[in-house]
Design goal:
Elements: H1 8-33, H2 48-55, E1 63-65, H3 71-76, H4 81-88, H5 121-136, E2 142-147, H6 154-165, E3 170-176, E4 179-180, E5 183-184, E6 204-208, H7 212-227, E7 233-238, H8 260-267, H9 271-281, H10 287-309, H11 316-329
Parallel strand pairs: 1-2, 2-3, 3-7, 6-7
Antiparallel strand pairs: 4-5
Bound molecules: thiamine diphosphate.
């Protein structure tokens, strides 16, 4: 773990953000296992340091785009828990009225432009948000979170090109968790992902994505560069997902693409536990404080999830009227 001379309150806020993501995801994992989810979920467990470290630098009006693995970014940007759970549960009070599900959680008011089932789909949308922020002239920035698989999509090159030319206030954050669905990143991506920024003259940094302080530092530089009009930065955060590509994948995969031993080994560098250990060792928090925080967050998560699970299903007529509006708009 990188250590840093930041006020304890800021470092505890990072821990809180990671913990909140972890507990939300663990609740959803349990919900899936119990057969209580109407659709698929792709969990972010193991990658929390990336969302927390980057989003710590974002202001309420800054914007982000996310992926099919999008709950962590939503939570780190300050999205409310109850509408998140309600959306994943398909309920009427969901953030998209229960019609979007896990892969579409969004809260435009909070700058969360949405999770996205199209791999790489958020990259150019974030460039558009960065262009809007640049035109507004208020120092806003946009962040595109995407995976290593998405970085093999042509849209990354196009976005690097135009954002470099126009000096867009954009942070391209690749979460390299080692896999694209069930394929190791090496069979999907030629060369180093960070090197993709080179031909466009965009600065790039590869960081230990399980080290929240290292991510925080890289993001601090990238966000400052973007806010001051110097253009985009690519961050490649090397991390690992502890859960499957999608919950329940063991039920349909014919063979395993990674061993239980590998996962157990990688869990030894769990970003949340490493940071917890660091906070204690650096005397930034004591055991009692951390346990109190853990129990407060687990109550907050359980309450939000339980309330969401009790909400009604959406009325099909709402869908009809939304489709009607969309048809008129087109
Ligand atoms: C355009 C497109 N192509 C293919 C898919 C199928 N697909 C869903 S997730 C995924 C892998 C994405 O890997 P990565 O970008 O590394 O994200 P991760 O799942 O590791 O978070 C693929 C190929 C898709 N959803 N969209």
């Amino acid at each position: 773990m990188t250590s840093i001379n930041l006020p304890a309150s800021e470092q505890l806020a990072l821990f809180r953000s990671m913990l909140l993501i972890r507990q939300v995801e663990e609740r959803l994992a349990a919900d899936f296992k119990a057969g209580n989810l109407p659709g698929p979920v792709h969990l972010y467990i193991g990658q929390e340091a990336v969302a927390a470290g980057v989003c710590a630098h974002l202001r309420p009006n800054d914007q982000l785009t996310s992926t099919h693995r999008g709950h962590g970014h939503y939570v780190a940007k300050g999205g409310e828990l109850e509408p998140l759970f309600a959306e994943v549960y398909g309920r009427a009070t969901g953030i998209c009225r229960g019609f979007g599900g896990s892969m579409h959680v969004a809260d435009v008011e909070r700058g969360i432009l949405g999770a996205n089932g199209i791999v790489g789909g958020g990259i150019a949308i974030a460039a558009g948000a960065a262009l809007a922020a640049q035109m507004d002239g208020k120092g806003g920035v946009a962040v595109a979170f995407f995976g290593d698989g998405a970085s093999a999509q042509g849209v990354l090159s196009e976005t690097l090109n135009i954002s470099a030319l126009w000096k867009l206030p954009l942070i391209l954050c690749c979460e390299n968790n080692g896999f694209s669905e069930f394929s190791p990143s090496e069979v999907v991506n030629a060369g180093a992902i960070a090197d993709r920024a080179k031909p466009f003259g965009v600065p790039a940094k590869t960081v230990a994505g399980n080290d929240v302080i290292a991510v925080w530092q890289a993001a601090e530089e990238a966000v400052a560069r973007a806010r001051s009009g110097h253009g985009p930065t690519l961050i490649e955060a090397k991390t690992y997902r502890f859960h499957g590509h999608v919950e329940g994948e063991g039920n349909f995969l014919k063979e395993l693409y990674r061993s239980e031993e590998e996962i157990a080994e990688r869990r030894r560098s769990d970003p949340l536990l490493s940071f917890r250990g660091y906070l204690l060792k650096a005397r930034l928090a004591d055991e009692t404080t951390l346990q109190a925080l853990e129990s407060e967050i687990s109550q907050q998560v359980a309450r939000a999830a339980d309330v969401a699970a009790d909400q009604p299903w959406p009325e099909p007529s709402v869908l009809d009227s939304l489709m009607l509006k969309a048809t008129h708009a087109a």
